[in-house]
Amino acid sequence: MSWSIGNDSGQWCVEPIVPLAAHARPDFNGHWFASTDSGWGMEILDVNISGGAPTIIVYMYYPGPNGQPAWATASGTLTDGPANTHTAANMQLLQISNGYCRTCPPPTQGLAGNPIGSITLKFDPPPSSGGGAATGSATFHAAYPVGGGFNRTDIPISMLSVPTGQ
């Protein structure tokens, strides 16, 4: 990938963060958004390395208290709902408090996550081959440090990207 930001530019080798063999089935890896509610979305990784229940990792972006971009992360275990009607995860939402810019030195103590709320994701059974984008719903509360927060309840979400394995 070649990139340019202002007077700075470079080239990076881009590789999948999760090897295809470690993708969980069904595969919910990709970019998710709410078509009826713009301004936020999430990257989802679901991996199955140990053969047990898949692990899900979420990187969510949303508007901060003054409309500036904010990021939060969550991780947990995917579980099947009653009669396999959906797959779900309930997770604590964390904000990285000591993140750093692309040109800044990284923190010496590693990244620190502060709890700011919760997120529940429910994924519908995947569509049959060629049946369209995967869908589900999201409920979350992301508290702002200055009071208030960004909240949604059972808002429909769809996969914007195509899973790598398809």
Architecture overview:
This protein is an all-beta fold and 166 residues long. It has one domain. Helix content is 0%, strand content 48%. It contains no helices and eleven strands. The strands form two sheets. It has a nine-stranded antiparallel sheet with strand order 6-5-4-3-11-10-9-8-7, with no helix packed on it. A two-stranded antiparallel sheet has the order 1-2.
The chain-level structural class is mainly beta
Cross-sheet strand order for the largest sheet: 6-5-4-3-11-10-9-8-7
Low-confidence stretches: none
Radius of gyration (Å): 17 Å
Please give the alpha-carbon distance between the first and last residues. Answer: 23 Å
* Total domain units: 1
Calculate the mean pLDDT score and round it: 85
Fraction of residues in helix: under 10%
Total count of strands: 11
How many H/I helical runs? Answer: 0
Strand content: over 45%
Order of helices and strands: EEEEEEEEEEE
Oligomer: single chain
Main sheet properties: 9 strands, antiparallel
Shape: globular
